[in-house]
Amino acid sequence: MAAIKATQQNGSVHGVTNGEGRNLFDVCCPRCSSIVLKKCSANFTIKQQSLPVYAKKSELTNPTNEFPTDLLDQFWSVNDMYTFENVGFTHDVNSLRYLTCADCELGPIGFQDTNEGPPKVYYVALSRTTHKPSDSTESQ
């Protein structure tokens, strides 16, 4: 499986979006390669959000712990939680629910702001995931 890397040019992302701004490849967990979002199921979105650095899922549900954070601004967004293939959700931490890989529990790979909406929007960070061609398009 070859991972596809996104490149940024003039404020937009190239190499991982189609002409409509949707994910051109499957979006996967960088640790276990489990598919998070299928090809063409999410929209590219620019939105600034601080996410805690990778930590154990059990650590993320305790709002009294202070974690170092990364300020991220490139996300895949979906409006339906059933669009995901393999994603887990933490309990609310203030107004955020963090998204994790459901198979290996790496996270957070994204978030949902429970104060935002309707509609509900779920965000998956490009920098916290990898992109791979679907099996049908992957060259052997």
TrEMBL record:
Question: What GO biological process terms does the UniProt entry carry, in alphabetical order?
Answer: post-Golgi vesicle-mediated transport; protein transport; small GTPase-mediated signal transduction
Q: Do the record's keywords include Protein transport?
A: yes
InterPro entries given in the database record: Mss4 (IPR007515), Mss4-like_sf (IPR011057), Mss4/transl-control_tumour (IPR011323)
- Stored SUPFAM superfamilies: Mss4-like
Q: This protein's superkingdom?
A: Eukaryota
Give the record's GO CC terms.
Answer: cytosol; membrane
The answer to whether the entry has keyword ATP-binding is no
Arranged from A to Z, the UniProt key words for this protein are: Guanine-nucleotide releasing factor, Protein transport, Transport
Gene3D superfamilies per the record? Metal Binding Protein, Guanine Nucleotide Exchange Factor, Chain A
GO MF terms held by the record: guanyl-nucleotide exchange factor activity; zinc ion binding
Spell out the PANTHER family in the cross-references: GUANINE NUCLEOTIDE EXCHANGE FACTOR MSS4
**What is the name listed in the Swiss-Prot or TrEMBL entry for this protein?**
Guanine nucleotide exchange factor
Record the organism: Paragonimus westermani
